[in-house]
Specification:
Layout (H helix, E strand, L loop, with lengths): L1 H20 L1 H8 L3 H17 L1 H11 L1 H19 L5 H15 L2 H12 L2 H32 L2 H22 L12 H10 L12 H5 L2 H22 L1 H8 L4 H31 L3 H24 L4 H17 L1 H12 L3 H30 L3 H20 L11
Helix pairs in contact: 1-7, 1-8, 1-9, 3-6, 3-18, 4-5, 4-7, 4-18, 5-6, 5-7, 5-9, 7-18, 8-9, 8-14, 8-17, 12-16, 12-18, 12-19, 13-14, 14-15, 14-16, 15-16, 15-17, 15-19, 17-18
């Protein structure tokens, strides 16, 4: 199950980052300005954000097997359709629906982890899953650049869309919502899983969203994730073209340099996931969530600020990599906290947190080109990202992972 979701995380980021690598040929073919490309990049994040909570609710109610198969198939079709667009409006609509489809990925995976993975192992599993996305993005940068040169930017979208559909078919054939219904799961393994969640169930009653949004805990969880995604989404959207333009790199060189932060992000996920589980096993639930996140946001702020003062690409990438290592250290504690406070409603809770985070992504994709156009410099954007990372630290101090959200209407 962990391997399957790890591969899906790679596919998610492969499909997402393709538009960034293909920015120049797409913009040239469709006659798009940088601001129009900013809207193309951001509209994905808006569709992704708005459908997080509904997707999480569907995974809670109807099961991960059906929902994840459906959403992966949907976004893979629209990944392929991206290669068929011929104007800005068509690209805008296709990328929005692509975002709607991808919205179901991580909330559904979180719900699967709740059902399949004991609490003491969830931190590392979340870290493994998110590292899959970072490794996928790192691999995608040079591979997609090569694929575009080998075929075309249009055919590249079609190929990646076909990969997603294949994964969805395999997932539906293999996965079961309840591990007790899977032939490959032994009774011994079931006992370990169920020791932590003896009363797990599929949600059938109505959920009170008003209760969720009245929770200070929920707002702090959402706020800190907004800050985390603001930094990371820059790497998925504007880092590649920024490096290419700022340091006069060719496509392959820019892909090579832009892949380094993603590899450091994968490492940050592993370190954070291990630290979350280690502290939890010491009976320090609250500290196991807060400490990795606070360390991560501190590193993100320092790294992103230091990168501003680098005059050559190696120094800039070194500090941006530190920033992404830090930003990704916040993921495992964030998603583990959603399972802590959400329990059987963890799909809805994690989806709502991810909605807030991807509103941060939406603003990132627009803030970069508009701030550059306004100020003539990239510096204000990097200062804004660092300030948000610092703002997230007091939010984590206030979060209470031990407080369960009772969302029954």
């Amino acid at each position: 199950m962990v391997f399957g979701t790890f591969i899906l995380s790679m596919i998610v980021l492969f499909d997402r980052i393709l538009i960034s690598v293909a920015k120049d040929p797409v913009a040239a073919d469709l006659a798009l300005s940088d601001k129009q490309m900013g809207w193309v990049l951001s509209i994905f994040a808006l569709g992704y954000a708005l459908f997080q909570t509904p997707s999480g609710y569907l995974a809670d109610k109807y099961g991960v097997r059906k929902v994840l198969t459906a959403v992966v198939t949907l976004w893979s079709i629209f990944t392929a359709l991206t290669g068929a667009v011929y104007n800005f409006f068509a690209l805008f609509i296709v990328r929005f629906i692509f975002g709607v489809g991808e919205a179901g990925a991580f909330p559904s995976m979180a719900r699967a982890i709740y059902s399949w993975v004991p609490v003491k192992e969830r931190g590392l599993v979340h870290g493994i899953n998110f590292s899959g996305g970072r490794i996928g993005a790192a691999m995608a940068l040079p591979i997609v650049a090569w694929l575009i040169e080998l075929t075309s930017w249009r055919m590249s979208f079609v190929i990646l869309g076909a990969v997603g559909v294949f994964w969805a078919l395999v997932w539906y054939w293999w996965f079961r919502d309840d591990p007790s219904n899977h032939d490959g799961v032994s009774q011994e393994e079931l006992d370990i899983i169920n020791a932590d969640i003896p009363n797990k169930k599929v949600v059938t009653e109505k959920i009170s969203l008003s209760k969720m949004f009245r929770s200070k805990n929920m707002w702090f969880v959402m706020g800190q994730y907004f800050c985390s995604n603001f930094t990371f989404f820059f790497c998925l959207t504007w880092l590649f073209p920024h490096l290419k333009a700022e340091y006069g790199l060719n496509t392959v060189e820019a892909g090579f340099y832009a892949s380094a932060p993603f590899l450091c992000g994968a490492l940050g996920n592993w370190v954070s996931g291990w630290l979350v589980d280690y502290l939890y096993k010491q009976d320090k639930l609250s500290l196991s969530r807060k400490l990795p996140a606070i360390i991560g946001f501190s590193l993100a702020a320092v790294g992103i600020l230091a990168s501003v003062y680098m005059n050559e690409v190696n120094g800039a990438i070194f500090f941006i990599s530190i920033a992404v290592f830090g930003a990704d250290m916040t993921l495992s504690p964030s998603w583990s906290t959603c399972l802590d406070i959400g329990k059987e409603h963890s799909g809805t809770v994690s989806g709502t947190m991810n909605m807030a985070g991807n509103l941060g992504s939406f603003f990132t994709a627009l803030a970069f080109p508009y701030l550059v156009a306004f100020s003539g410099s990239t510096t204000p954007f990097f200062f804004l990202a660092a300030g948000l990372s610092l703002l997230a630290i007091p939010m984590w101090i206030a979060i209470k992972p031990e407080e369960h959200l009772n969302l029954a209407a």
